[in-house]
Amino acid sequence: MAVPGSPLEPRAQGCNDLIRTGATLVTSAADVLECLAPLAGPYAPPPLTVAEACDDGEPDDAARAAVLALLSVTPVPIDDLVRWSHVPPGQVALRCWSLNWQAVWSGMPAIG
């Protein structure tokens, strides 16, 4: 699999060469899923729409508490918050965004 680049961009030469020699052209996440589907065999879950895949729902109190427990004065990458809290990425991002705006509104320094 390779993502195409501009033929005028020297950094895209590797990807464009891969496509020229037979790599699968990837222009969206759907292309990747289509390419990987045969590997899942009969265990493949039913395909999701983009809206279904991105919908993490509203954070509940447990999700809020899990994310807040991991925050400190030391910056923590959001990927680590997701991994350690076991909270869906959309909910972690929403909680961080909410905390950032609460800080702005209260006059505290914003996160990031």
Q: Please report the distance between the alpha carbons of the first and last residues.
A: 34 Å
Share of residues in strands: under 5%
User: Total strand count, please?
Assistant: 0
Low-confidence stretches: none
Residue-averaged pLDDT: 80
Shape: extended
User: In terms of quaternary structure, what is this?
Assistant: single chain
Order of SSEs, N→C?
HHHHHH
Provide a count of the helices: 6
Radius of gyration: 20 Å
Overall structural class, as computed from helix and strand content, comes to mainly alpha
Portion of residues in helices?
Answer: 40-55%
Biggest sheet: strands, sense, closure?
A: none
Key terms:
single chain, 6 helices, mainly alpha, 112 residues
Structure description:
- Helices cover 54% and strands 0% of the residues.
- By secondary structure, it is mostly helical.
- The model has no long low-confidence stretch (mean pLDDT 80).
Topology:
Blueprint lengths: L12 H8 L8 H12 L9 H5 L6 H10 L7 H8 L3 H18 L6
Helix pairs in contact: 4-5
Write a concise synopsis of the structure shown:
It contains six helices and no strands. The protein has helices at residues 13-20, 29-40, 50-54, 61-70, 78-85, 89-106. The longest helix has 18 residues, at 89-106.
